[in-house]
Amino acid sequence: MQPIVTPAEMAAIDADAPEPVQELIERAGAAVARAAIDLLGGTYGRRVVVLAGKGNNGNDGRAAARRLERRGVRCLVIDAAALPAVLPPADLMVDAAYGTGFRGVFEAPHPADPETPVLAVDIPSGISGTTGMASGRPWHAVRTVTFGALKPGLLLGDGPEHAGQITVADIGLDCSRGRAHLVGGADVARWIPARARDTHKWRAATWVVAGSDGMTGAAHLATRAAQRAGAGYVRLSTPGSSHDPLAPTEAVVVGLPDRGWSDVVLRDLERFGSLAVGPGLGSSSDVAAQVRRLVARASVPTVVDGDGLRALGAQARDHIGARPRDAAPVVLTPHDGEFEALTGAAPADDRFEAVRAVALVTGAVVLLKGPTTLVADPDGKVWASNSGDARLATAGSGDVLTGIVAALLAQGVDPARAAAAAAHLHGRAGALAWPRGVVASDLVDHLPHALAELPGG
């Protein structure tokens, strides 16, 4: 997994490096120079303008300029403290004005040609290294070379839009202390167990408790996703319903009464490898009470989404803490609105710390949905997934994610890894679909393709 470190963590890593600062600067400059030559397509006759600040970010840019000049590139280094309104003509602009620790407002000067590409050093100037929020008018880089590890600001807020293609350059820093990592396909492939030759459906069985009058679609999407993500047996139950003619063909529909249904589930739950509860259940006080009772008494790995999250609300910690001592963990999967229902406030701009805080308070694994989805465990570790794009922003997409998490839990995947792997697969299913017109059921249909593209898949 690719480490992600905050600006404060990176400052400590830099300070502890055994190499002199100047050696690290030269290595960083070399990485920037290589990226510049790649973008320039050569060196002969090329012109580069470097915006260089007074800190090490500027020193990295100056080191890159020296290397480029030795290769025949004409470089002009401009002090970031005295920027002209319009820059001289160039084939490439290198943004080394300010780094991840910048505080203030950065107004990027206008290039002579608006089409001139920009290469950012570590992070585009004016983008917070912690939150990704833009301050002023930063440039939109076509590529960013960052050092040692990713920074949260490259993954959050305005960061991805301004950073362009991100290259992580190894300059010899030890980033193993990082508490966050970006999940990739190779990681997911390692986490999902191979199916034994003598396996049977009950070895990966999940129970989906979801849906209500007019909201059966949420239940069906979660069920189908669990089936496609590897659950061998999926039981679907909707409170107050014993007949669902439109349920997925392969699902086993078991009715539940209107009231007191949590006890019915609890009596037979030990046969299952996981439980999913919440999508489309409705918001009545009785439903909320049954969700809380079920979550508090279930012992199997449990994923809670949608109306289930609103049912737990600000008392999520109490209900999760009431589970049997040997119970498996709970996974909560809020979007920003559901996050507010759990905490009383929308996520802070520093989403890494926001999701950590909820995981610590509730004792659950928390998956915070977003353009970059974050998963935190109660110990403070965070996994990030940016495999998806705007195609996931469609009704029912979260129900699909719930089903994937449930299926991976049923297969015995560690809850935090199950949530992180589900986020990756969910995103890849969307990315493998069509450019436009994607609906949530398309995500389900593309899940086998997302699984097949995993290394060894």
Provide a short characterization of the protein structure.
By secondary structure, the protein is of the alpha/beta class.
Segments where pLDDT lies below 50 for 5+ residues?
A: none
CATH topology of the largest domain: UDP-N-acetylmuramoyl-L-alanine:D-glutamate ligase
What would the principal axes of the Cα set say about the shape?
elongated
Strand content: 15-25%
Q: Which architecture of the largest domain would the CATH scheme give at its second level?
A: 3-Layer(aba) Sandwich
Number of strands: 19
**Secondary structure category:** alpha/beta
Ends: how far apart? 18 Å
Summed up, the helix count is: 15
Q: Overview of this structure, please?
A:
The protein is of the alpha/beta class. It has two domains: 2-176, YjeF N-terminal domain (Rossmann fold); 185-452, UDP-N-acetylmuramoyl-L-alanine:D-glutamate ligase (3-Layer(aba) Sandwich). 37% of the residues lie in helices and 16% in strands. The protein has 15 helices and 19 strands. The strands form three sheets. It has an eleven-stranded mixed β-sheet, sandwiched between helices. Strands 3-2-4-6-8-9 form a six-stranded parallel β-sheet, covered by helices on one side. Helix 13 (397-410) packs across helix 14, helix 13 (397-410) runs parallel beside helix 15 (440-452) and helix 14 packs across helix 15. The two termini are 18 Å apart. The model has no long low-confidence stretch (mean pLDDT 96).
